Amino acid sequence: MTEEVELKWISGFWRRIGALFIDTLILGVAGLALGLFLESLFVQMGGWGRLVGFSIALIYFGVMNSSISGGQTIGKKTLKIRVVDSNNSPINLGKSILRYFILAIPFSLNGAQFSNEAMLSLLMYPLSLIIFGGLFSILYLYIFNRITRQSLHDLAVGSYVVNTNVEKQATGKVWNVHLIIVALLFLAAAVVPAFTSQLAQSEQFKGMLSVQSALSNDQSVAYATISTGSSTFSSTNEGAKTTTYVSSQVFLKTNNVSDAELARRLAIIVVANYPEALQKDTVHINLTYGYDIGIASSWSNHAHNFNPLELQSAE
Questions:
Q1: CA 36 from chain center: how many Å?
Q2: I need a labelling partner for 253 at 20 to 30 A (CA). Which of 5, 14, 119, 237 fits?
Q3: Contact yes or no for 294/111 (Cβ under 8 A)
Q4: 10 close to 160: Cβ distance less than 8 angstroms
Q5: Which residues fall in a coiled-coil region (predicted)?
Q6: Residue 258 carries which DSSP code?
Q7: CA-CA-CA-CA torsion for 183, 185, 190, 195, nearest 10 degrees?
């Protein structure tokens, strides 16, 4: 005789993660299908393409986690869990949309491209608060709030994720220590820009910004990033060897990632606008073409390496 395991009303961590994985997979397939027909449009949108995926996901989760669909997305139906309020009833559409908005905004903004330096400087503090404060708070509560299993978005609208066909059970309250830690995470996120702004005033950082701007002004380039670093390789014959480099990832408007002449022209721009590159061993240009709409992405890449001293003579 098989003994049945009694389910608690509040859903466990892994069921929620499993449901989210299924829903993310479904949205990802839908995003890739759209990309087959709208690739050029998504490429032209650049960083704004994330709004496409965000809007699709907002409709999907907003509608299906609400009373319209019984509080269940496809993933939740598969794993027999749903979103409800404290009365064990599905939440209304407005609360469901707000719930997903709070959950998704920090993740959607994380890694977003801001080509306008003035706008980035103006939004630095609120962006840090939303992205880092929201992101770390959500992850912290997901993992450590084991009593109610409510994360930031659930606490905001008073929702719970529960097992279906299980009667409501009494739940405890969120520990005050969790709320204190969340407050500290938001406080830390609010002060981070005060330190990063000092870095932005350094001569090296300003020089790299000028390179980024010069690359972005090229007619073939949609957006570019710039960084410096070093890598160490070890071999039995030669021992350890360290190579220094200036690296730029260049997002192209058309799929010319294999164009060596284009890569060379961009490498010359790097050397012309960043004299410190002459002290490096390599100028690395990674030509990239593709799109990222949040729920799906598709990229083509080709790496090109140049000797900076040879580039100087070609200016």
A1: 22
A2: 119
A3: no
A4: yes
A5: none
A6: T
A7: 150
